[in-house]
Amino acid sequence: MPSLPFPFPVVRWEDEQVILIDQTLLPEKLAWRRCGDVPALCRAIRELAVRGAPAIGVAAAYGLALSWRLAAAEGLDGQARRERFRDDSRSLAATRPTAVNLFWALDRMGKAAEDLWGRGLDDAAVQAGLLAEAGAIMDEDLAMCRALGRAGQELLPDFATVLTHCNAGGLATSGYGTALGVIFAAKEAGKTIRVFADETRPLLQGARLTAWELATQGIEVTVLCEGAAASALRAGRIDAVITGADRIAANGDAANKIGTYPLAVMADRHGVPFYVAAPASTFDGATPGGDDIEIEIRDPEEVRRLAGVPTVPESVGAWNPAFDVTPNDLITAFITEKGILRPPFQESLRVII
Ligand code: MRU
SS3 of 42, please? Predict the structure, then answer.
């Protein structure tokens, strides 16, 4: 099984390009995808070569540094270069609608660019400034994940078994993770934690990515079909459910990978705490509630095939929402870099939004 140092570089800037771990190839192959222009990066985001809310934000931030470099290399004049930057920002924003971290990072890069342009700097200095801002977004994400991991691990007793869904690990962030960050922090605190990882149909982020990350870090992990989660909860095998989030509305409703909501319902039914681990960049004070969150609908072929092989009769269609919304009343607490935030969320979330 391929492995990496930890925390690992999910996104990096090298040879004047954006380099990503190609997550579509894991766990079979650990390979990097080079994005030499913004359309290539947009494709990588759409195809989930880079995925997970914070990681998409970091990749897009580097994408705007790339945009500026290419426009300067083409010799576009100042005005045309700025227009290219704004066009590229719109293209990146159009890749995936649900994770707010993408829009948060693009907005932050846009503000940094306006500031750099306003200072009348030369191309190289603007380029350096944009790269520094993208690097800061990545470094801050790593620091937030470490901090929320430390806060969250306090919730777990030694020898706890945690059920998680999709991949909210290092691959989905800047290398450490949110839901998995809590597990890694518990391990660093000397605890033995076991993980049940939902396989996460249709694209198997739990089976392919979460299981790979945990196994490479020496954490005991067992993959189960989503349909088996209720049985594990009913049998008393799970001490806590921890997931990440793609966008958390002002009222605490949380969008995450499709299949998270039923997990929260089942956890509630069986009296198991359901925690959502997320950094500040995932909270969206401008979105009042879960019904206001746009849910990405992906290609039905992702459901109709498994590893390229048809699993549904040719004449039958499929519905493929990528995310669902867990209502705030099913969430025991948010695990954040500002600590554990419990209901009533209208009040407790004020430390973040
Ligand atoms: O479609 P994906 O793989 O990008 O979905 C990712 C998730 O749903 C994660 O749980 C979420 O982004 C949190 S990542 C820390």
Answer: helix
Q: What separation in Å is there between the alpha carbon of 272 and the centre of ligand 1? A: 22
Q: What would the pLDDT profile of 297-329 be if each residue is shown by its tens digit?
A: 999 999 999 989 999 999 999 999 999 999 999
pTM higher than 0.85: yes
Pocket residue to mutate for ligand 1, from 10, 26, 47, 51, most atoms within 8 A of Cβ: 51
Domains of the chain: 11-145 (1.20.120.420), 151-351 (3.40.50.10470)
**Which one of the listed residues 22, 246, 284, 324 is annotated catalytic?**
246
Cα–Cα distance, 159 to 195 (Å, whole number): 10
Express each pLDDT in 75-117 by its tens digit.
999 999 999 999 999 999 999 999 999 999 999 999 999 999 9
| CA 48 to centroid of ligand 1, rounded, Å | 10
Active-site annotation holds for 88: no
- Can you tell me which residue has the tokens 């470490």? 146
Mark out the alpha helices in 74-122 (DSSP H runs): 78-93, 100-118
